[in-house]
Amino acid sequence: MMKNQGMIKEIFVLRSIGCLSIVLLHSIFIALSTLPIREMGELAAIIFDSVQMILYYGTPMFIFISEFLIAYSYRGRKLPENFLTKRIRFILIPYFVMALFYSIPFITDGIDTWSIKLLLNVFVGDYHGYFILIIFQFYLFHYYFHRYLKLLSPKLVLTSALVINASYLIFFNFTSPPDVIPYSTYIWERFYWIPLFGWIFYFALGYYAGLYYESFIRSLEKFRYLIIIGPLLTSILLLYLYHSGILQVHSSKRTDILLHTTMFSLFLFYVTTKISSPPRLLVFISQYSFGIYLLHYFYIFLADFIFRLYPIDIGVTYIMLLFVFSTLSSILTIFLLNKWKYGYLVIGKIGAPYKL
Fold first, then answer.
1. Inter-residue contact 130 to 102 (CB < 8 Å)
2. Are 252 and 59 spatial neighbours (Cβ–Cβ below 8 Å)?
3. Residue 318: which region, alpha, beta or left (left: phi > 0; alpha: psi -120 to 50)?
4. Alpha helix (H) ranges present in the chain?
5. d(Cα 257, Cα 261) in Å, to the nearest integer?
6. Handedness of CA 88, 89, 95, 100 (dihedral sign)
7. How many CB atoms lie within 10 A of CB 84?
8. Distance from C-alpha of 20 to C-alpha of 22, rounded to nearest angstrom
9. Quick one: pLDDT band at residue 355, thresholds 50, 70, 90?
10. Taking the model in full, what pTM does it have?
């Protein structure tokens, strides 16, 4: 009998680890921007900058998770009629609300500036919630093309997706914005994140892993030694390319992140297959992960604003302060908002608990 989609224990672990990785990398980013190098120490700054690079697997991992769940849950039945409307209600509307919320500080720069910022937030994801726009492209892609993907060879689709994804990222990673294209600097620095071509391999991997779940699990066992050492190897490669100056892009849209995210996802999946049930803390974080993703940056900014007003010499401990404060504050806010009948429209709903 097929499992319930929410009861795949591996997904609880991947979702929570991915969520916490995103919060931590943003905490490191803000801390490195705020603390003087002399206070943190040059070596510590280099180490945490490297940790931040390694954590970039968190964002693309969510595409794998999202598509895995959809492909697995509906592999033996038709998509429901409310497939898209349900996701608009619980995911896209909170994205719009947060787009407005994160544009509010720009009102101080004038109505025109604020209006432009709001439009950018909503239509091109000009804030950290941009990822929702990417996810929705894949919802539509799955909705219209999943029946054709099912008929194709997984090896053919995965190889094609990898070539498309890698070629797209290589182009933007290793070229400069041409002057002849309007807004080329913005396109090269941010907008190229949005089209699905920069993420399509994760979608394809998640689709076939979910569709052929049993075969996927057997493959994890078959290649377990490579999967166990994989994250270490990709981390070394990532840091070498970054610190050597070969690829200085500082985001999850690096070409080498394709391999890095894949290995981390497979590693976490494999490790979790070896435990009877996921840790309660990770299940709890997983339930709140969507809201944490949307809210955590606000609380990081808030804590950093207060810290700048009343600075104290705490060194690298500041990173953990931002991490813990933003995570706990987000969870509390999500919990309280979901006490309100329409709170899910603001921040999304709390996920279902894990059950055997």
1. no
2. yes
3. alpha
4. 9-34, 37-40, 42-54, 58-73, 83-87, 93-101, 111-124, 130-149, 154-174, 184-189, 200-211, 213-222, 224-243, 257-273, 280-309, 317-337, 344-347
5. 6
6. positive
7. 15
8. 5
9. confident
10. 0.93
pLDDT at 290: 96
pLDDT tens digit sequence for 187-202: 999 999 999 999 999 9
Q: Token pair of 106, please? A: 């720009």
Q: Are 278 and 9 in contact (CB under 8 A)?
A: yes
As a whole number of angstroms, the distance between CA 248 and CA 262 comes to 20
Contact 196, 137 (CB under 8 A): yes
Over residues 279-327, the pLDDT tens digits come to 999 999 999 999 999 999 999 999 999 998 988 888 888 999 999 999 9
CB within 8 Å of 129: residues ≥ 6 apart:
95, 98, 99, 102, 121, 293, 294
State pLDDT tens for residues 204-249. 999 999 999 999 999 999 999 999 999 999 999 999 999 999 999 9
- Per-residue pLDDT reduced to its tens digit, 253-274: 999 999 999 999 999 999 999 9
Q: What are the backbone dihedrals phi and psi of residue 295, each rounded to the nearest 5 degrees, phi first?
A: -95, -25
Q: What are phi and psi of 274, to 5 degrees?
A: -90, 0
pLDDT at 313: 81
Q: Where are the domains of the chain?
A: 5-347
| Residue of 338, 325, 334 whose CA lies nearest to 297 | 325
Dihedral sign computed on CA atoms, order 25, 186, 304, 345: negative
The rounded distance, in Å, linking the Cα atoms of 351 and 308 is 35
Question: Over pLDDT 70: what percentage of the chain?
Answer: 97
Residues 79 and 143: their CA atoms lie apart, in Å, by 8
Q: Could you give the CA distance from residue 27 to residue 14 in angstroms, rounded to a whole number?
A: 20
DSSP state of 356: -
3-state secondary structure of 254: coil
- The whole-angstrom separation of Cα 103 and Cα 115 is 8
